[in-house]
Amino acid sequence: MNSKSYDACPECDLLIDYVQPKIGEKIHCPRCDLLLSKPRKKSIERTFALSIAGFILFFPANFLPMVGITLLGKANTGILMSGVISLFNENMWPVAIVVFLASILFPLAHICLSLLISGHLFFNHPNRYLIRWMRWIKHLDEWVMLEVYMLSIIVACVKLMSIAPLKFGWGLYAFIGLIIITTLLTSSLDKQLFWQRIEQLGKDSKHAS
Ligand SMILES: [Zn+2]
Hints:
Blueprint: E1 4-8, E2 15-19, E3 27-28, E4 35-37, H1 43-63, E5 67-71, E6 74-78, H2 80-89, H3 93-122, H4 130-141, H5 146-161, E7 166-168, H6 170-188, H7 191-208
Antiparallel strand pairs: 1-2, 3-4, 5-6, 5-7
Helix pairs in contact: 1-3, 1-6, 2-3, 3-4
């Protein structure tokens, strides 16, 4: 298992060769101290389980009411999408698009890709798209910003609370769960291990055919 790896540090481009660390060990860049590799226990199984949980939670988080407010005897509820729609109606459509992408579309794509990749590796099922999916997920990592959206929800809630009492709905709890799961998902996916397994699956399927 102690295979040698050559890698350029993504931060400072220093070319480093190092022995594949064991679980619990960490490899840092000698020049800029960036964490390069940190193998995780049962990364494939954990990523697979977390992405299933994330996929299930995505729907209540997006379609169940997050907050309820009663103003002048009229009850209103808000779901995640209604924030996007009201931004759109206020003619703030560039913001609406960013919020839609960063808080709805990209998180969903991220969860689906994690599910696809870890599912294929979990069942040892080769697929010629695995490499492409891994590249996509790398770009998505930079774009999933549920935490930022959460912050704006909190600010909006605090403002509304001064007008009328708020009732928190299941959508909000599901959304908080979704943030926790997405964060765990990003840290459980051991990219080096995934790339190794994908390479191995590719070789195995070539031998088989
Ligand atoms: Zn470096």
